[in-house]
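User: I'm writing a short report section on ligand binding and want a predicted complex to refer to. Could you take this sequence and coenzyme A and write out the structure as tokens? A short remark afterwards would be nice.
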Amino acid sequence: MEGNPFLHPRANFFGPGDGGSQEQLDVRIELATEKDWEEVKRIRLESISGEDAEKMGRDFAKDMQRTDEEWKALLKDPEILIFLARVGNEVVGMGSAARVDSIKQAWKLRWMYVKKPFRKRGIQTRLINLRLAEIRKLGGAKVVTHIRKDNPDSMRNIMKAGFVEDKSLRLWRQRRRGWIQFVKDLGEEK
Ligand SMILES: CC(C)(COP(=O)(O)OP(=O)(O)OC[C@H]1O[C@@H](n2cnc3c(N)ncnc32)[C@H](O)[C@@H]1OP(=O)(O)O)[C@@H](O)C(=O)NCCC(=O)NCCS
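Assistant: Sure. The structure tokens for the complex follow:
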């Protein structure tokens, strides 16, 4: 792997706004713990109720209805990783992963979201790479994720991190419904 996967050379040095002002932006990314449950809930609900909702997957109803106790439980679940990106006290992005098969050691990346003014600064790239590093530490062998066909931003993001489209036949129905499965084999990197 080339260079340090966690650092985009300019990732921290652009403020909000599309041209990228020179205002310094200190982005901190950390694995969320139980104390962060309200922030996780807030940004997840924002992501599935705002203009990007359609891109965010099929778990809407479940997340909308989760009780506070259930949100707290998510943060304690060892099979679920949730990373939050913060600028000052504001949560500006998130990325989660869940172990989906404990025999094959397969994980799934999900809940990828960065607030609009903070996009194109390498935040989600860092969120992806940090999740992959944590999954490797936990013995993960394979990582999958689902992206809608009409979401090229997210596809470029994930492909730059080494994911490839999974073209296996059993996925044809899903493709027809507008979703593509991407996969990354962590074993191949060793
Ligand atoms: C998809 C999404 C998560 C990407 O987040 P992001 O933080 O903007 O992603 P990154 O900044 O890592 O990468 C985006 C682009 O910015 C570029 N970039 C990275 N750092 C940069 C910097 N400092 N300056 C300028 N550009 C930069 C990347 O190279 C990438 O370029 P590309 O689009 O040409 O490939 C975000 O657009 C989003 O939340 N979209 C709506 C919800 C969504 O689609 N979620 C995914 C569901 S599967």
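A remark for your report: The chain has six helices and seven strands. The pocket of coenzyme A is lined by residues 8, 10-11, 14, 20, 52, 55-56, 112-114, 119-125, 147, 151, 153-154, 156-157 (CB under 6 Å).
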